[in-house]
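the two lines:
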Amino acid sequence: MPSRHVKRGIFLLLAVLFLASGCSRPIVRQPGPIPGGPGGLAVGGPIEQDLQVVQTTLKPIYFAYDSFTLSPEAQSAAQYNADILKRAPQFGTVAEGHCDERGTAEYNLALGDRRARAVVEYMVTLGIPPNKFSTVSYGSELPVDTAHNEEAWSKNRRVYLRVSR
Amino acid sequence: MFLQLKKHFFITKVMALLMLMCCVPGHTEPLIIDVDPTLTLVAVPDFVSASPSPIGGKALADVIKDDLYFTGLFKTPDVTLNIPPAASGEPDFEKWMEARVGALILGNFSTKGEELTVEVRLYNIALKRLEVGKRYTGNLKDYRRIMHRFADRVMEKLTGVPGCFSTKIAFVGDSQSRELFVMDFDGHNLTPLTRTNSINLSPDWSPDGRSIIFTSYMRGNPDVWAVDFPGLALRPLSSRPGLNASPRHSPDGNYVALAANINNLPKLILLNRQGNMVKVLTNGRGNDISPAWSPDGAAMAYVSDQAGTPQIYVMSSQGGQPKRLTFKSNYNTDPDWSPRGDLIAFTARVEGRFQICTMKPDGTDLRVLTSAGSNQDPTWSPDGRFIAFVSNRDGRRLIYIMDSRGRIQAPVSPITGKSPAWSRNSW
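prediction for all of em together
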């Protein structure tokens, strides 16, 4: 179990890398987990005070093409996230809905909106108060992977949870 | 950049002409739909200047030549053809007729400092008469605008409907921050419109051309904003919680239809000029988006996935029972109603890629107009003759224009972009 200081060091390093890599797309900073980032929250523990730690622990929730229903995998990712958010009740959460590049920008806005709301509805059934959530759809405007292939598309069809004070 | 574009333009042009020629023998449809076939060949010799000038006579003639070419209704001679005038000073009609020229455009010009004066005449060779003659004076840098204006008159004389060559297209730039741009319909005079440093989407011109409404994330949420000409001041129009998406002016300019969250679902609503909600137009369990007004303002086509996949529906513009129009593909989006009222253009997924299609407003007579690459976001020109759209067929996402049958298709935007919107008015 790494010490708190080490965890913070790793986080800061990753945060710097993250921000640096984000410079090519200055529009909206992408939240979401960092592979290998601090994971102490996933195994229980006290209420987490550090917003950034909570943020980097949350997982994206992925969707099938043209779909806004939660698959079993998406449900388990939502459950994982709900467990974390329950232990950080002081934070609010914005559910950001995203689509892959295929299809038209306007319909993708509606689809991203439905994905974000589907995640919120599901997490409310898991016991998170609805007033802790807001939603925003980015449609297909902010891909995490800008390649034009199945692998990129599957990463881009997602809902990110962004925590805020 | 510009040179490259011009070259590309030329290649596309040659290919399109070749395709046209190849198509002729077995083609069942007439190639010329609304003009006399004898007018198919239009000669536009280089304009003539009596004294040296900072602008060439070819540059002036080329504006008109390109305009006519885009319509798909006319051909221009492959080589620059010029026949000396007859002794009377009139064109040598007999010789032009021998060269199979149907219409002839002759121009002469002079410059004085920054001032350009052009005289242009359109002759009907078969009838051996002058159809229209105009004299324009303006700033040298506006020479394209002057030539477009005469080309508008040429179309009026040759087809009965004025051209739309003095119109503009707004679109969303594809660079890191998605700013709005405006360009002439043929891609010239590119001008930035916004500097919001945010995502901007779905521009739509007011019918009088005085403002453009669009969705912007400049304050974090997708809200509808207006940018007013000429000062480019921004003002918020709709910032309801959730989506404020796909705004479209009514043809009379008094209302805006858009998608907003009603009981959590994206639904179409109607706003007045001040941005206050007049009514909710759609209900049901689908996501509703992308309204498209009929030109008389009475009906509205839109996209809904209430049947499980995005399809195009039509209803009264006051709401009410929708009728589904599309059934062939499981993805039909982005309707745009022709200003002539006779067709709806839209995007359909065909064999995994997206193509521009048209259909009649009752859903019949489906035509797929594009085939290369992925093609999206159709928008009609105000005369209903052209469709602008986005295509990635040559690797980059550019704005293209084509005639309403898809015979001539050419990239026009000098930068990558999407979401084109064609102005309703001329400049």
